[in-house]
Amino acid sequence: MSMPGHAPPVPAPPTLLEPDLLAADPAGLAEVGRLVTELTREAAAALRRRTGPLPAVTPQELSRLLDSLLPDGPMPRTGGGRQAVLALARSYAALTVDLADPRAAAHLQPPALSVAAAADVLASVFNASVDTWDSGPCAVEIERRVVRSLTDLAGYGPDADGVLTPGGTASNLQALLIARDAALGARRDVRAAGLTGLAAEPVVYCSELAHFSIARACAVLGLGEGAVRPIRTDAAYRMRVDELERALAGRRDTEVPIAIVATAGTTDWGSIDPLPELAAVAARHGVRLHVDAAYGGGALFSDRMRPLLAGIEAADTITIDLHKTAWQPAATSALLARDGRDFAPTTGLRVAYLNPDDDGEAGYDGLLGNSMATTRRADALKVAATFLALGREGVGAMLEACYDLARHAADTVAAHPGLELAAPPALTTVVFRYLPRARGADPDAVNGALRRLLLSRGTALIGRTDVAGSVRLKLTLLNPQATTHDIDELLAAVAAAGSAVEAAA
Ligand SMILES: Cc1ncc(COP(=O)(O)O)c(C=O)c1O
Q: What's the pLDDT score for residue 268?
């Protein structure tokens, strides 16, 4: 009987009472274990039925296939429980990209390591954040140690520091933020930094093949994309030092150099700019040097390939993407700084509710001061798990295997009468094209069409780029378990698709 004036208690919805609702308690963890087992079992069954790295559906067909599972509109009012999640896992594994298929060779997107993926589940379960010590004490310490091992690999000394970021784009942005404020001498105040009513014109030098994230960073930082001074490359796609010297020497008085950005591993060619020479130029002109080693940074793990990055230790900052050549689940990049004090002027913030001074002085400090983010995942956990499980040599061996595959692919292309190699590979990409047999056929149209044909069949996933506006195909080889036989079959599939396109014309 309800008391007069008191509403009867409203029963809690059943899900709120489930003892295993929350991941990070013993009952919840057990449920996570059961669910992960079932989800991965469903996914494995779907994977076994696959015929290639991509589903053989058009984008429109894929969208229709998802309709019955996940409405393309308002969210479901009531839940469907674990059955609904299992059905989602089945469809996801059937329809997403399968990067472990040796015929997946399009992007700088490797198959993730099992050990890293499993550790990542634990990061989600505990949901720690590394911005403050008390939001993720062990996660904070693990990231510090992972960063330390990376700065050590880069050849930096004890003053170095770093931070994990969501990707090379973010790492490059933060590097240029640091460089901008170092050069213009002010922070968090656009006017003081000279960004409005500019007398000074900030400029960033990088090769014409630098990643577009450099220009984007300039735009985001208020410098404008026009701040980029693209420097021409040599025949091996590396920044020409003489051209850089000329650009620096010939700059107008109003131009203020913010940074020289070297690329260690250009996206298409894998070429590595001449780091020691660029470091010397940077030092001579008193300009900061940032090395975008988002792709090539993986060479740090390998004794055999480390010499390719000789001189990197002279850079002020380095971007390295662990979700490229350390086989981590995205998103995991690192920005490293030779002098850890570089972070303070731009991100070294003290906030009363997060990291007050006295807590910091007592050692209760998180990583807020190194990052542009506030809440930040324990991404270092999967990296630490990888380093512990495989060691430096284990990770290095993976890149070495892909490096060798790229050489095999290049030799095979060069020996194939219907294919044309664009250049010898520098890392693990191979740029080439199909040569149409029919006189008068447009090679660009045929190469574009043959890639789409492979995509639509789902049997091979290769990349595409251009050389002076003319279409080229690209293999980005990041599967260390692929064999030379797999590469031969992939190239044979490309040639066959080219013939099919020509026959259909
Ligand atoms: C040289 C280089 N830098 C930066 C990036 C951007 O990295 P992310 O995709 O992790 O933002 C890429 C991506 O391919 C790259 O190749």
A: 98
